[in-house]
């Protein structure tokens, strides 16, 4: 579907020419009411004329668009926004684009050169945006664009004043993105490149002509559309190319030791390490940036960073020897359980009697009482927690510094709800990621000698890398990114303040999840939720939305633990269904931070009767036929209504489960064909598999035969099935 701006009111500042003009034309062309602002100044900010804005407005109107001109300076932000409200009654989009240049080498930059640039670019964008802000907040919609420049991001000779203002806009946008987020007011920044009167003095004429301003407009329109959920992004754009920027930070180095002063010599000695971008991190917000820094405090205090800063970190070369470790089997462990553990686990991952369909996991007397599939991680956890990890040959690691990185779980049969499970863990591989070592632990769990499930734990041992091992492994179950489209389903579910306190009772006793002082030592503001608890939430969201809460349909799940969750925060699971695979991404609703990434759930026969497949009817051949019947009924409905005078209900099944419902109404009005649950009275209902339906339609099998062989089931007024021919007879051609 093309992106429309019908009903939206857009302000583009400095739209009398150059880039702003192209934005104004593009917005208007897609239905927006546009305020074309331009002071009509020269490139240095001198002079004033209404001609520039008027010409653009004329051009828009000539093409049938809606636009008015405004000649205020962006320094009159309030006045400017008031004129937008006077003209169109609301403000949805602000594109801060107005700009001037006063290039000088730094030594020759005058106060006026400095001030004018700050006033137009930075202060102007501030004033216009502030005037629009509350209107956007109140209407819970707003899109704001800031215009930065490569000169600000990278620096450019002779543009100190301009660079400062342009990067200032990035900072402004970063904070607006945070403050506006919950009101659906998003702010993004672009650094465009285009031929315009601003660049004609610095670019050769053929480049000015080739780098058309119209190549930039599509990005601006997308970022300003209601469908676009990007917020706080920074993009370089030009020539029809668009790229996104972010910050990168080296692993860094702590140059301080317990009870000793930090010295410039230590900084000098560690300089290469401080500046080494190998395994760089990409902090996305202040919390992430701070967290690792605050961790250093407790690390230094606990003596963890106590070596001479020039020596290697904790686990040194001799302590990890993959050749000895890989293939090592941890002694098997036995897990005895009853329905109590199943129920405790279900409560631990947020199930509640508030949802009647959760009862089958919460009440042992329920006729379908079952164990949640993700409970299968619990017995295998036990296998490792029983001290197994501590005694592996060739693997001497600091167990207080291990992080659970990823999890893969595959079930071969539904879990029993009580009994004895035996788990056998093997070190599948040990990888060297530089900053740490990655252990792949494969755990097979058996019930009465039969394999029930397989778990792969990906464990990151901080500081244990650098032993010269491989970086990747063919044994690793890889995380997969979700499709690049809006999710098919989103579920938001609050965790409680006591979620971690409850979850740990299932067997994960790490104090990190309950003890505030322990959590603080690890650098967290409070005890964090178990990654496997969020994992349980996300898995049951998929199970409910796409598999009718039927544990036998659950095949496998993979997740990467990207960020911590605090108990009490809400989890937002976004789901994309592609065949039998449901890609998932789980975020903390309050912060928008992705906590489970690269995740997916595989289902058995996922095209069954979940509400989604009822409405989507994935890949059913019969859909085409019903669509065609619908078209014909539209054309000749009244005639058919006279002939048939009945309402037919269809249940199309796939793999034995209802996959779609259709109503062919040839009784009321001039007839209609509708997909979805039957509405109103149906005279006769046919239940038939998608493929049998196609055989009937193509004349390969006649309806009576299908009926007598049990392939076509009929309920209600059976006699009416004779009238079926009237509807179906012409479809053999399809
Ligand atoms: P332009 O000079 O064609 O357009 C800027 C417009 O802003 C002019 O029409 C001018 O009259 C108007 N303007 C100046 N001061 C104003 C004020 N106080 N109030 C209202 N309007 C005012 O230049 P261009 O290239 O289209 O630039 C648009 C924006 O993109 C500017 O912010 C510029 O700094 C930025 N930019 C452009 C690049 C390029 O390659 N063209 C590179 C990087 C950034």
Describe the structure.
- This protein has 734 residues and is an alpha/beta fold.
- The protein has four domains: 9-245, 3-Layer(aba) Sandwich (Rossmann fold), CATH 3.40.50; 248-314, Orthogonal Bundle (Helix Hairpins), CATH 1.10.287.4290; 319-603, Roll (Thiol Ester Dehydrase, Chain A); 611-728, SCP2 sterol-binding domain (Nonspecific Lipid-transfer Protein, Chain A, 2-Layer Sandwich), CATH 3.30.1050.
- 32% of the residues lie in helices and 24% in strands.
- The protein is built from 23 helices and 23 strands.
- The strands form three sheets. The protein has a ten-stranded antiparallel sheet with strand order 9-11-12-13-10-15-18-17-16-14. Strands 3-2-1-4-5-6-7-8 form an eight-stranded mixed sheet, sandwiched between helices.
- A hairpin with a 5-residue loop joins strand 17 and strand 18 (594-603).
- It is flat.
- The chain starts with 8 loop residues before the first strand and ends in a 6-residue tail after the last helix.
- Residues 306-318 and 606-617 have low confidence and may be disordered.
Tell me the layout of helices and strands.
Layout: E1 9-12, H1 18-29, E2 33-37, H2 51-62, E3 66-70, H3 77-88, E4 93-95, H4 111-139, E5 142-147, H5 150-154, H6 160-180, E6 185-193, H7 205-210, H8 217-223, E7 234-238, E8 241-245, H9 264-269, H10 271-274, H11 286-301, H12 322-325, E9 329-337, H13 339-348, H14 359-362, H15 377-385, E10 402-411, E11 419-432, E12 436-447, E13 450-462, E14 489-494, H16 499-503, H17 516-521, H18 531-547, E15 554-561, E16 570-578, E17 581-588, E18 594-603, H19 611-616, H20 622-644, E19 646-654, E20 657-666, E21 672-675, E22 684-689, H21 690-697, H22 703-708, E23 712-716, H23 724-728
The site of 1,4-dihydronicotinamide adenine dinucleotide has 33 residues, from α1, α4 and β6.
